[in-house]
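Q: I'm teaching a short session on how sequence maps to structure, and I want students to see two examples side by side rather than one. Could you give me a first protein with its sequence written out and its structure tokens following it? Keep the formatting plain so it prints cleanly on a handout.
A: Of course. Example one:
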Amino acid sequence: MAARIWSDVTALIVVMLAQGALAQDKPLGLTPAGKAILQSQLFDRQGKPMPFPLAICAFPGGLCGAVNRDGTVAVRPKYDWVGKFSDNRAAVRLGGLYGFVDEEGREIVKPHYRIVDDYKFGFAQVDVDGKSGLIDRDGKMVIEPKYGFIEAMGPDRFRVSEIRQLGGWIGGEDFSGIRTITSTASSITLALPELRDMASGVVDIS
């Protein structure tokens, strides 16, 4: 009797695992609004094809991912924000923290940074405890976080500053250097230029 019960339990577990696998393999689709957005993004205003994958937040549940030109999923919709692709990498946000995925949807850097920048020349600026460093395309820290600001000027030269140069808004800062201020009285958003440190330096990887 005990052997039969154990056999039935084992069979049930196998069925549940199989159903879970099928659910994971089930094609992910955009909402009707998402499909309309995709159709409107196939070409730019000059009629030229837009670059893909396309980041989009129009999956069921309001989740964000990215799709290919034919509507198939490139980045699984599990994030609360996905940025545009640059250097075959896109920033993703989950729980208020940022990481990176590639165009095949692989999570290259798990979300754990408070602020990140787009990849330029194979490097991305990231924030670690209020200091900026650089990671490479694999997520490896190649310049330790010790600057106020750092950005790639080429594949081996980087502009650095001791002064922090954040943009965005309070609670949603970025490295753009453009401060956004919202007036609650009129609901108008103003983009004000952030003062840049004129005494910048240049460093290399060595």
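Q: Perfect. Now a second example for contrast.
A: Example two:
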Amino acid sequence: MRALVPVLAIALFVAACNTASPADERPSPGASLSPDSVMSPVPAAVCAPPDDAPPDVAPVFCADVAAMETARVLKIVDGDTLDVLLDGREERARVFGIDTPERGQPCFREASDRLEALAGSQVRLRPDARARDRYGRLLRYLYAPDGRSIDAAMIAGGFAHAWTDDGGLRDPLVALEARTAASRAGCLWQPGARSDLPVVGSRRRA
């Protein structure tokens, strides 16, 4: 009986070595993998203007963000103002191309919530005619990381008016607002919203 013990032990050891666990299975270098065994890469989002955007406003919806400033969003102050972390310093940034209602005016909350949704956690900042307003806030056109214009999205959604005093994108953004108003799209253009109320443009005049 004692003579059988080593034989049985060896047999069990050989059987264990020949039984591969699922965790130890690896495809050979030349083996092909089934489509289900690999994760398909997620394609990068591509910015594109709306299909119905006319030529005079289509270019404003997207831009190349490669040379723009990158900032982390810290806080949404209102529909056209946010606190960001830029180059290691905290800054208050004023969205150059738009005006949104003041606190207490119709659509204030809706505009603030929409900016928060569009901005997410990171934005791109594009400088233009003026670097800062008279309050020291950064003046920047605002973009999502994929190049979508947040200024244009706010206006097209009926959450913001176009800033009309200056700026390289003033004319297409004003044209976009006219189209949005004509279609009665969004909060600002609904009956009772009183979208003709003066908004924050006067705050930014130097």
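Q: What should students look for in example two?
A: Point them to this: The two ends are 102 Å apart (CA to CA). Also worth mentioning: Residues 4-17 form the longest helix (14 residues).
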